[in-house]
Amino acid sequence: MSNYFTQKNAQLHAENVALTDIAAQFSTPCYVYSRAALTDAYQQFSQALQGREHLICYAVKANGNLAVLNVLARLGAGFDIVSGGELQRVLAAGGDAQKIVFSGVGKSTDDMRMALEANILCFNVESAPELDRLNAVAASMGKTAAISLRVNPDVDAKTHPYISTGLKQNKFGVAYTDAIALYRHARSLKNLRITGMDCHIGSQLTETSPFIAAVEKVLLLVDQLAAEGIVLTHLDLGGGLGICYDDETPPAISDYIAALLKALAGRTHKLILEPGRVLVGNAGVLLTKVEYIKHGEEKNFAIVDAAMNDLMRPALYDAYHRILPVVQNPHPNPLPEGEGTVEKSNCLIFDVVGPICETGDFIGRNRSLTITENSLLAVMSAGAYGMSMSSNYNARGRAAEVIVDGDTVQLVRARETFAHLIAGETLLP
Ligand SMILES: *Cc1c(COP(=O)(O)O)cnc(C)c1O
Q1: CB neighbours of 99 closer than 8 A, spacing ≥ 6?
Q2: Ligand 1 atom at minimal distance to the Cα of residue 274
Q3: 357 assigned to active site
Q4: CATH: 2.40.37.10, 3.40.1010.10, 3.30.70.20, 3.30.470.20. Which one for 5-32+281-422?
């Protein structure tokens, strides 16, 4: 468990606030983030990078809540965006446009215009036609776009196939063998300025070796370009560092950075990184309540008020999230800490499922839990790709989001109401 979600007096807390109090005040389902956890993860990056020119561009898609972005912006973070919407989120949250890199295979003309207007740091270009389009858009605005090419280094990230992005068969980046020719082409385009090279090989990586393999391949290209007089000022090594959801043992942030810096020995390029999950994943939990206990013929079900529309990862990737009871010992009169004896209780094995009409609507399977109707559960490690992937499926309003900071809790996104759900819809005349 992270240092910021801990048991105190047999009750799960976010920093100093009991999750039962948050449920009472804001109801469930509710995403709960820890400001200290966010800050800690960011500072682990910045400390490990001290002494090296760098920019930590948080990948907004992991969690785009304005308050989360604002916490990171105030720490000095830059941002990695993949849409015009994310650009507007960053600017609305007080982010610095000059610290924004723009990734993604499908940037629209409007997206490009908006980003050029805002004067972002760099476009991570992912194809030949995108180079030409960006050049044309920049020319039409009388501007020059700073670019890096996202190179696909064809290394196996050894992660889930849906979140691996650096293999030949993936849609991301330009083919390794085409990269040099594309840089030459980019140099010929008047409204582009080449500043770097970029790669991002996948997500939830739990070893450093694929990152290092990618760096080595990138550096071979960097040297070939330099020999042709195309000198890069920055290297963007993407994101992808994994977190512990269950029993994974990803490298510590400091070890990951140390390995990268070792692979970059002798290079003076400014280093850009695009961490997402590792900054926010273990800084958030999804708080949910048991609505019903259902004893099926073969299984017991805990039907909770959070569902796949709130947390899609289990349905989408068969992802595992720990599920912890918020009140550890459901004794009517909890004994003082240290003296508690856990009641011999009817602990059963449950599938924890939501109310949505899909068999894929589960949060966790085969979990041993001591629960009753109305018990609160915390779905752990839900800060990344939780709320940001949520939907309104089954006409469910999105969950509330709160941030805990020490002893205080602040609502940072109100629970959606019916009015939010139908905003923009009209009846036929
Ligand atoms: C998703 C993504 C990231 C962040 O990935 P994490 O695994 O969350 O660190 C960084 N860069 C790009 C281009 C991405 O698509």
Answers
A1: 55, 57, 77, 78, 79, 121
A2: 10
A3: yes
A4: 2.40.37.10
